[in-house]
Request: fold
Amino acid sequence: QWIGSVFSAMEPIPFFMMTVFAFNMVQRRKREHPNQAAVLWAVGTSVLGFLGAGLWGFAHTLSAVNYYTHGTQVTAAHGHLAFYGAYVMVVIAIISYAMPVLRGRQANSRRAQSVEMWAFWLMSISMGVMVLALTGAGILQVWLQRMPTDNAMGFMATQDQLRFFYWLRLAGGVGFLAGLVTHLSSFFIGGEPAGEQQAGASLQAA
Reply:
């Protein structure tokens, strides 16, 4: 178990290297790319994927720690952030990049991209609220239900003590839903494509 724990604990290292690589690539091309919304989603997945799968996974990957945390809200917190960062944001980044191309343009209008960026921040901050709430709930759950040996609380009795964190998690979920609706609304915002705006400005300057 300890050998496996050591190798599992090394997982954040390549994750962090991939995050640095992503930032280096963006620094080279971000000013030239007309679809800044897609770039934001792509960078976001490297950061939140690292936090969710890397750091939150590392926090309870050692066998001596996982013995107490496995199946608690700590696991739920890790699962939420890892899935959102490593999978959901990748899919949204692909959609953000591909949809304008499928419509025959390089990128959506600046206004549509602005709305999409608002969606990014709403969804990501709300996910952060949910994850922190679940983390707090998990720590308290471990303390009340798993750590004591003689007077440990039962599962349902422990859940009653976690209501405050669950209300916070609900607030984060509502915010995430608002971000999702904002993202979907950006599909229906028209305007001149951003790439054509830049090309027009270059022609006028010439």
